[in-house]
């Protein structure tokens, strides 16, 4: 258990980035921040680090938005946990989000982020419980 | 209760189309078949009929595939129940499917289709139960 | 397995009552129709028959409405499966419904009723699966 | 993200109130304590503050109990997250609780409260995922 | 879609076996009955047929009971859908059942069996939706 | 609320034991560590303390492994929340785990443990919400 549980974070607003990093750190996760979607995808493809989840803003620097990055992450690993953070774009979740993801409406509390990441990671137990 | 619960079906394989229509009919639903994704979207936009769910194949005649049609249907109505039917394209669900949808792997039994449509319609009760 | 699975139904609209009885019968359930909420509660209290679920309209003949009958049924048995059927009163579900119940919006297809009753009965397995 | 996520708390036992406030604060929520159910309802109706969830004891000072306050809160907003805290009244939850709420049995740990509030807030993503 | 969805059934009571076969058949499944747990395991291991789910009684002819057969089926395929049927042994489910299975209490209605099998098959969509 | 919420922990690796104790403590739980499965079962049977959940490693000192201890705990209390922690044995969960439990893959973050314990405790509200 000396290994770290690394969560990739894509967020260019420094204030939010700080809140997310602090929250993840307090929950015992290690945040790895990518400046753009392109950088995040490169890091996920290289597999130098084992990322366990993706926490992404929707409006990103660069050409890709958060919806697109999440789709690529799921092509690389179909079970990858995805958490979107957004204020203005929440109404696009129903058409642009991927299955089995969670949307956090800004503003959100750090506990919501920790619960969201943990729920998705814990649900990955083989096999996931059907409800009922 | 003399009104019908109409489910839009997009499927060009006549054998599967027959199975789906029969299954829906046996469960008390009314199937409305669209030949292409384009036709389905036109019908959803016109709102002459109140469609309550979409059951769609992935590989469709015309330019749109089932993933794209589902996204447009969710832009029109963010809570629209979506059921995908596929054999070959199941591995794309994690990246191309919309949240809160169900994928039926072909071959499937008619009871699976009825349960899938019913689960999504019943979950639409205001408000949907969070699990806990 | 010669015993019957009896579902109590409270519905005074004869057309809907017929649809509900037929649907339950086709699914292998036995419907026991009560004319009013008062009668239903008397039957539940007497325990001559083991009722396994309650399917109730909201607007009932007599002084009690469906919300009140469901609450009394849950006082008698805290795990009793409850399915509400309504058109006009759906917006009251969030404040007047009981936990772990299902609301069917009229019009609904028979398959939705069977799935709703079955989901609640199957979820009663000891213990119910937490999600995750 | 400088805005706060405010949670309304109705609890007159000062020891429990302190625990709840500390727990919420540690999770990054802002607790707004109301002394009675009547006061809570007045505050919810005025909408000066955007409350995001209600955490309520069952036995309250004043004429309303926690079950009644939750129902009024749901009339004001049908999707409002409700968390009940109780020791003695837990057996009334099945008949008096509202759908999609969570009951915390006293004594509970602060982490349970944070998870409960977060689960309900995160499930409010549009649309909530049906299980399947 | 001319292929069948085959469900393995282990049940030696002929009356129940008939009910289960009829129910599955009506839902469009093909039942393959095994007389004992040993026979069922042999068939699952040979993989001549692609079985998609297991429906099993608890008290079986032969040396294995339903709890043991389900565990072996899950060793062969960790995602195999399991439905137990029992009257007397329901209280053992919490300690002897496998995760993500469903217990049907006898007597049950055919619709409950169809919903149970369908829920587990539909939940197998890659990836299974975490709740939230 | 001066009473403690005690969670039984079975883990002989001192490093992991420390992480688990710290995580539980930070979430407001009280950890009670048992050195072996045999000791844990003795403590659960004596009922001197009210344990509210079990967090167990799979490979234990003594003759019992974590799968076996969990089964005995569920015989004592069919609703007892179970969280397994494992690295190597995760693939056995589908056949050896009990229903309604959660598996944490090592390495995991403290927040995952707190969320897992809290989800299972909160789901124990009477009655547990069926999904839909």
List the helices and strands and how they pair.
The structure is a homohexamer of 132-residue chains.
Chain A: E1 6-10, H1 14-26, E2 30-34, H2 37-46, E3 51-57, H3 66-76, E4 82-86, H4 93-96, E5 102-105, H5 110-123
Parallel strand pairs in A: 1-2, 1-3, 3-4, 4-5
Helix pairs in contact in A: 1-5, 2-3
**Shape annotation of chain A:** globular
Annotation, overall tally of beta strands of chain A: 5
Biggest interface and its residues per chain? A-D, 29 and 23 residues
**Mean of the pLDDT scores of chain A?**
91
Percent strand of chain A equals 15-25%
What structural class should be given to the helix and strand makeup of chain A?
Answer: alpha/beta
Helical run tally of chain A: 5
Poorly predicted regions of chain A are 125-132
Helix share bin of chain A: 25-40%
Q: How would you classify the quaternary structure?
A: homohexamer
């Amino acid at each position: 258990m000396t290994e770290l549980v690394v969560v990739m974070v894509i967020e260019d607003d420094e204030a939010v980035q700080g809140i997310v990093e602090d929250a993840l750190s307090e929950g015992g996760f290690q945040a790895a921040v990518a400046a753009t979607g392109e950088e995040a995808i490169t890091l996920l493809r290289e597999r130098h680090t084992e990322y366990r989840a993706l926490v992404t803003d929707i409006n990103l620097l660069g050409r890709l938005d958060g919806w697109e990055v999440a789709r690529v992450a799921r092509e690389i690993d179909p079970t990858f946990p995805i958490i979107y953070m957004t204020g203005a774009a929440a109404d696009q979740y129903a058409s642009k989000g991927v299955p089995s993801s969670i949307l956090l409406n800004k503003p959100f509390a750090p506990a919501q982020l920790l619960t969201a990441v943990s729920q998705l990671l814990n649900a990955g137990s083989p096999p996931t419980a059907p409800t009922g």
